[in-house]
Amino acid sequence: MLQRLRLVFDDFTLILLLVVVTATLMPAHGAGVAFFEKLTALAIALLFFMHGAKLSRHAIIAGVVHWRLHLLVFLFTFVAFPLIGWATIPVLEPLLGEALTRGLVYLCVLPGTVQSAIAFTSLARGNVPAAICSASASSLIGILLTPLLMVWILDTQGVGERFSAAEAALKISAQLLLPFVAGHLSRPWLGAWVDRHRTWLGRVDQSSILLIVYTAFSASVVDGLWRMVSLSALVTLSVVCCLLLALVLSSTTWLARSLGFPREDEITIVFCASKKSMATGVPLAQILFSGSALGPALLPLMIFHQIQLMVCAVLASRYARQSQASGIPVS
User: Fold this and answer.
1) What sections of the protein cross the membrane (predicted)?
2) Count of alpha carbons within 13 Å of 94, Cβ hemisphere only?
């Protein structure tokens, strides 16, 4: 029982909640704001440099042959999810308010996760090489596609502040894409070291996310975040995130089986197409949103992130038990 609870509520989730509480009680003020903003910019650059250094071209090439699988994952990640967000805006805005609705739309246009999608696919005995390829490509494509999808949805539905696609592209190129490319080009020299220290570098990734979350929530708290977002809105948002995840999980499972994918590929599709990335979403939000809009933009992502971990932990364990009962070897 304790092991199951530790899987659901991991250390990072607990620390993330502590950071939000700290930002609420002790937000950065005065000179501290400028300090944390500069430190956050450096953390974002380091985060994406290391993402680039960790991305193996061999893994990408090895998984390309599963083009039908990748196409289905990308359609859910960058078409179905955004369309759901776009279509539900008229319903969600009266329930959640403009700020949280904008955050939920942002959640819908984000790329999938890398580490957790691969980990759950492995635990469930799915197609791990295809998961590595699909998740890595999703993360890279999302750096460019997420802002474009946000521009399109905000322009068509008029939810909150708009931002220029050209301006967003320039900021993302300078703060995210350049460090990512530099990190990937350095892989011939850093690749072996990065592969040996993935656990330690994972902690660096998490520390960068925590710093960005603290900076973002500090600014939002000072601008009145918790006056804008009520407890009832948070509860409603949690219910909406549960329904969104349930819809995508059931749809991906049904479609993978209807299209005749093998069980291993079905598992990969379910876990890669249903997840949304904090590692990409938090730094991107820092660029795309500002001031009081930043905290509400991140709240749906943080809630959805925890729900997807809890649900997928149970789902992966069930897949693994079914595979074991069928005599499928551990991958």
Assistant:
1) 7-26, 32-50, 71-92, 104-124, 131-154, 208-226, 233-256
2) 3
**CA–CA separation, 254 vs 261, rounded Å?**
11
309 lies in which domain range?
12-318
| Residue 42's CATH number | 1.20.1530.20
Q: Determine, yes or no, domain membership for 3.
A: no
SS3 string, 281-326, reads HHHHHHHHCCHHHHHHHHHHHHHHHHHHHHHHHHHHHHHHHHHHHC
Q: Does residue 136 contact residue 59 with C-beta atoms inside 8 Å?
A: yes
Q: Is the dihedral of CA 144, 148, 154, 157 positive or negative?
A: negative
Q: What is the pLDDT of residues 21-49, one digit of tens each?
A: 888 888 877 667 777 777 777 877 777 78
Tokens standing for 75?
């359609």
Please tell me the total count of domains within the chain.
1
Query: How far apart, in whole angstroms, are the C-alpha atoms of residue 207 and residue 249?
Result: 30
Q: Are 283 and 301 in contact (CB under 8 A)?
A: no
In a domain, 7, yes or no: no
Q: Is residue 2 part of a domain?
A: no
* pTM, full prediction: 0.79
Residue 160 has pLDDT above 70, yes or no: no
| H-type alpha helices, the chain | 2-8, 11-25, 31-54, 57-63, 67-75, 81-87, 89-96, 98-109, 115-123, 128-157, 165-172, 178-185, 187-196, 198-222, 225-228, 231-258, 263-273, 278-288, 294-325
Structure tokens given for 64: 């390309």
Give the pLDDT score at 240.
96
Give me the sign of the Cα torsion angle 13, 14, 20, 22: negative
Token pair of 67 as six digits: 């083009």
Other beta carbons less than 10 A from residue 93's beta carbon: 18
Domain assignment present for 325? no
